[in-house]
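dumping this here so i dont lose it
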C-alpha cells in the first residue's frame, strides 16, 4: 500500500471528527442565541399592595419593575397577565340573615391580558433599568373580588421575574344558595294522626283567578275572507232569444227589431196571396 493511499484513508477517518466539531459549534451558537435572551429578560416584579381594596369599582395596583439591564427605549410595551385562582362568593344560606362570604377556588380560568406602556425614564430623559408603575383594574374589564396570579411579560414574550399573588378585596354580587322546601308547615301542624294519613294533595285547591283573560281575542280568520270576490260570483245569461242584431247593444232593441221583421213578413205574404187571387180572376 502506498503512502498516498494511507493519507487518503486517514483523511477519510478524520472527516467524521471534523463534522462532529462543526455540529457542536453550531449547537453552542444556537444555545447562546436562544438562552441568552431568556437570561437577559430576568429582572423582578413586586406589588407593593398585594391586597388591594376596591374603590369606585376599580382596584389600583402599585408595582416595582426591574429589568436585568436598561431598555433601549424609554417606553416599553409590557403585558400584565392575570389568572383568577379563587373568587369571594357572597351567598344567602339557610339560618343566616346576612350573606356569607366564602372563598371558592376557580379551576382553569381564562387569563386576562393588560397591555400597557411602562416608562423607564425620568423627567430629564435618562433611562433606568428599574421603575415604579401603577395602573387600575376595573369590573368593566371582567375583574371581580378574588385572588389572582400575576405574571409580567416583556415585548419578546419572556417573563420578567416570577409570578405574584394578588388579592382584590370587595363585594361581589349576591348568590342565593338557600334550599327550597315544598312542605306545608301549617297543614302538618293541623294534621290529626287519629283521622289517618292523608295525601299531601288531598286538600289541594287550585288558585282562583291566577291568570284572568282580558278582552276578546280577534278571530283567526277575518270576516272579509268570507265575502266572495268577482271571479267567484255566478254570472247568469240574460233572458231572450239569445240573438243580437248588428248595431244594437241592448236586449230591448233586439226584441223590437224582431217584432218589426215579423210584421213586415206577414204583410208581404198577404200581398202575395192577393196578387195570386187577382191573376185567377183575370
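and the seq i came up w/
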Amino acid at each position: 500500500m502506498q503512502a498516498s493511499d494511507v493519507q487518503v484513508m486517514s483523511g477519510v477517518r478524520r472527516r467524521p471528527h471534523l463534522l462532529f466539531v462543526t455540529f457542536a459549534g453550531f449547537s453552542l451558537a444556537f444555545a447562546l442565541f436562544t438562552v441568552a435572551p431568556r437570561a437577559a429578560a430576568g429582572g423582578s416584579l413586586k406589588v407593593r399592595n398585594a391586597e388591594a381594596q376596591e374603590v369606585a369599582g376599580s382596584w389600583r395596583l402599585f408595582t416595582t419593575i426591574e429589568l436585568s439591564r436598561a431598555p433601549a427605549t424609554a417606553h416599553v410595551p409590557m403585558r400584565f397577565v392575570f389568572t383568577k385562582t379563587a373568587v369571594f362568593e357572597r351567598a344567602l344560606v339557610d339560618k343566616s340573615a346576612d350573606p356569607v362570604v366564602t372563598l371558592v377556588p376557580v379551576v382553569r380560568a381564562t387569563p386576562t391580558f393588560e397591555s400597557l406602556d411602562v416608562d423607564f425614564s425620568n423627567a430629564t430623559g435618562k433611562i433606568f433599568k428599574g421603575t415604579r408603575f401603577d395602573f387600575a383594574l376595573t369590573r368593566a374589564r371582567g375583574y371581580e373580588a378574588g385572588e389572582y396570579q400575576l405574571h409580567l411579560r416583556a415585548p419578546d414574550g419572556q417573563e420578567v421575574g416570577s409570578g405574584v399573588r394578588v388579592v382584590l378585596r370587595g363585594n361581589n354580587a349576591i348568590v342565593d344558595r338557600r334550599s327550597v322546601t315544598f312542605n306545608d308547615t301549617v297543614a302538618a301542624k293541623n294534621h290529626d294522626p287519629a283521622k289517618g294519613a292523608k295525601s299531601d294533595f288531598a286538600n289541594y285547591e287550585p288558585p282562583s283567578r291566577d291568570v284572568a283573560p282580558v278582552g276578546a281575542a280577534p278571530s283567526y280568520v277575518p270576516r272579509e275572507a268570507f265575502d266572495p270576490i268577482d271571479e267567484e260570483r255566478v254570472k247568469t245569461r240574460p233572458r231572450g232569444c239569445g240573438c243580437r242584431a248588428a248595431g244594437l247593444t241592448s236586449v230591448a232593441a233586439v226584441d223590437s227589431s224582431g217584432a218589426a221583421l215579423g210584421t213586415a213578413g206577414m204583410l208581404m205574404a198577404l200581398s202575395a196571396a192577393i196578387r195570386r187571387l187577382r191573376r185567377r180572376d183575370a
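The longest helix spans residues 3-41.
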